Amino acid sequence: MIDNTVVISTPPHVKSKRTTRGIMLDVTIALLPCAVAGIVFFGWQALILELVSVAACVATEFVYYFIANGGFAKKCKNAGATCKKWARQFDLTSVVTGLILALILPADVKWYEILIGDIFAIALVKMFFGGTGKNLVNPAAAARIFTAISFSVSVFVLAKVEPSLDSELLTGASNLEGLLKDKHSALTALDLFLGTGVAGCIGETCKLAIIIGFVYLCVRDVIKWWQPVLFLGVFGLTACLCSLDITLFLPHVLSGGVMFAAVFMFTDYVTSPKGVIGQLVYYIAGAALLAVLRHLTKVEVASFVILLMNLIVPLIDKYCIRKPFGYVRQKKTKEGK
Q1: Domain residue extents for the chain
Q2: What does the pLDDT look like over 195-231, one tens digit per residue?
Q3: For every residue of 134-183, which 3-state class applies, written as one string?
Q4: What is the DSSP secondary structure assignment for residue 255, as one 8-state letter?
């Protein structure tokens, strides 16, 4: 007999004042500088995409929850109770997914394209597997790939950072002339850092905005400061090793969506390892893999690497065994020896 009074939930099972809703609110606030910068650089198109994406994700979650919890049963007699139940459990995860998806797509994406991507992210990647805390991969990364494949959205074009007079620096979806190392370049390190004159995806161009969000998340103890720093450090060094030029560290790190992915996507609680050792393996392996694949393919493969690393997280957690909570190692006595 199963005791129905026992409630089984996903880990961790540690009491804390922090809630999922509170954490997601912090992430939303941290994303706002990127959202505002995207509107400044790309105009009202970026604002429309951000609003449509967030609204579509929240609406998709509500509709899925409403149907799955019998909102239409018995001629919708339970509709009111189901709506109240959804409102109580609403944790802002769909808001974060919608905002991230908008920020990692270019501003020329059609509104209906991102809407379909939102439905895919929430209905199939998140809710189909049980909702918050149970999705296997990052919903926004999966939706980005789905949108690009379905509508031929150019989100995977990346920087060619090897030095040459006729080289181009491509960030996100658009071609840009110039290179940091090229004396004839129209771009400078400050341009790449601020996003001025840099084409690309809505929230990935302004690195200053990303750093502001990163600092806020660290201050709020949502993420650990060393996680993105380790990732970007390993990525930059591996990329320099591939190109055999250490002076290209900044162009590698500042181009494309690497920094945004390191701060807001690789650090996702659900799809990253739980232990410190597992996280070290996760960030180092993910960064090295991303650098190698970008060097070989010359395209932005951050979303593909995120999905790949998400899928092997269970293996990382299995073999990188964590110390049990509250465990104290017993000292050996002479008799025990």
Answers
A1: 20-151
A2: 877 777 899 999 999 999 999 999 999 999 999 999 9
A3: CCCCCHHHHHHHHHHHHHCCCCCECCCCCCCCCCEEEECCEEEECCCCCC
A4: S
Q: What is the pLDDT of residues 251-273, one digit of tens each?
A: 889 888 899 999 999 999 999 99
Alpha-carbon torsion, ordered 97, 101, 102, 103, to 10 deg:
100
- Record the pTM: 0.85
CA distance 141 to 267: 13
Q: Which residues pair with 170 in a beta bridge?
A: 175
Retrieve residue 142's tokens.
């999966």
Dump pLDDT digits (tens) for 310-337: 999 999 998 887 766 666 767 666 665 5
Beta strands 168-171; 174-177: pairing state: antiparallel
Give, as one character, the DSSP assignment of residue 59.
H
d(CA 262, CA 260): 5
Beta strands in the chain (DSSP E): 168-171, 174-177
